[in-house]
Amino acid sequence: MKIQNIRVHVLECPLETPFAFSQGWVKSRSATLLEITTDNGITGWGEAFSQGLEPPQIAAAAIEFALKPELLGRNPLDTEVLWHELYNKTRDFGRTGSVMSAISGVDMALWDIAGQFLQQPVAQLLGGYFRSHVQPYATGFYRIDGQGECDRLAEEAIQHRENGFSLMKVKLGFGVDDDVEVMHAIASALQGTEVRLMVDTNHAYGRHDALALGEAIEEFDLLWYEEPVVPEDKGGYRELKEKLVMPIAGGENEHSAYGFRDWFSNNALDIAQPDLGSCGGFSAARHIVAMAQAHGVRVNPHVWGSAVAQAASLQLLAALPVTNHNLFANQPVLEFDTSSHPFRTELVEHPITRDNNLVKISTKPGLGINVNRDVIEKFRVN
Ligand code: CA
Q1: Is 84 assigned a catalytic role?
Q2: What is the mean pLDDT of the chain?
Q3: In percent, how much of the chain has pLDDT > 70?
């Protein structure tokens, strides 16, 4: 089997109502998808993660100009070999950011091909299913005005609860005082329910404010505190980890085993959150998960991409061992973004759904998706 062609699809869809997270306003949805076709008629799909503020064309150019020439004519089952070749080839201008997202998308598509070729789901190729279902958590609580939105956010919490979610992640990072007010409003709206909350500031603060916020919201018994400071400040993560009781999470903006090594060796994380679309794909995720396990760090993948990335993330979640085993160990949970996103709901034939507050993990070959090409054409920008 040989790789015959690689096509990159850049998608964009303007949002009716722009929303903010702490780093900026998101005005459109975008995605960098790629399909790899083989000489025996298999098509594998992958996605290079496009952060809310990241132009999807950057990863697309990396795939087209830097990776594709290395891949044409190669055996797509050589996932590990090709990963190292692509990483070595791009080392001097890559290692992180959009170039690693490009490698991630390629690797994802290669595993999809391997699964279809062997008629096995990717989770099986990764070693099997530790779980058949995963509990989703609602990611939401984005801002429409920026500050002073306590009442609307408390309403949103009630809405998620009524929609059956028992885990929710609140976006913070809009000023410590505003953040604390928001948390009080949400906690009070959810009083008497069994809902558990996490928070995510998207590295909004320096150490001082991050600690002040952490101390002020510790009473809410949070499942984790995500990206409290910038990813460059691993000492800051470690300091917060030592001073706060709640678990400290991060890693969506980190890449490869080389990047995660520095977090683990600095004892900077309780929960590592690699994103399959930017950490380096399944091949890199395997390296990262093994290293996290050896350091006693939990792994809970991040996912904010389209239906392709979601399907891939579910396969990884199936095959993810629990780091600290006991009969009632913490299981990984699925990030389930509740904001409007046609690339999640329309792009594949069977988008993920929740049944009794659980998401079933596909057992179909590869990633288990059928991509709707009409949707690609509808939102294509290249
Ligand atoms: Ca996040």
Answers
A1: no
A2: 96
A3: 100
Q: What kind and span of H or E run contains 207?
A: helix 207-217
Distance (Å) from CA 20 to ligand 1 centroid:
13
- pLDDT, one tens digit per residue, over 133-143 is 999 999 989 99
Mean pLDDT score, 121-137: 98
Kindly give the distance from the C-alpha atom of residue 120 to the centroid of ligand 1, in angstroms, as a whole number.
31
Taking CA atoms, 378 is separated from 9, 12, 37, 342, in Å, by 11, 9, 22, 11
Helices (H), 244-355: 256-265, 281-294, 307-318, 342-345
Q: Tell how strand 43-48 and strand 225-226 pair up.
A: unpaired
The three-point CA angle 369-275-264 to 5° equals: 145
Q: How far is the CA of 294 from the centre of ligand 1 (A)?
A: 24
Report every protein residue that has its C-beta within 5 angstroms of ion ligand 1.
200
- Kindly list the structural domains of the chain, giving each domain's residue range(s) and its CATH number in brackets, ordered by start: 3-120+372-379 (3.30.390.10), 124-360 (3.20.20.120)
* Residue of 9, 255, 302, 341 marked catalytic: 302
Contact 240, 229 (CB under 8 A): yes
Return the DSSP state at 66. Answer: I
Q: How far apart are CA 107 and CA 281, in angstroms?
A: 5
CA 194 centroid distance within chain: 25
Q: Which residue has the tokens 């069977």?
A: 350
202 CA to centre of ligand 1 in angstroms:
6
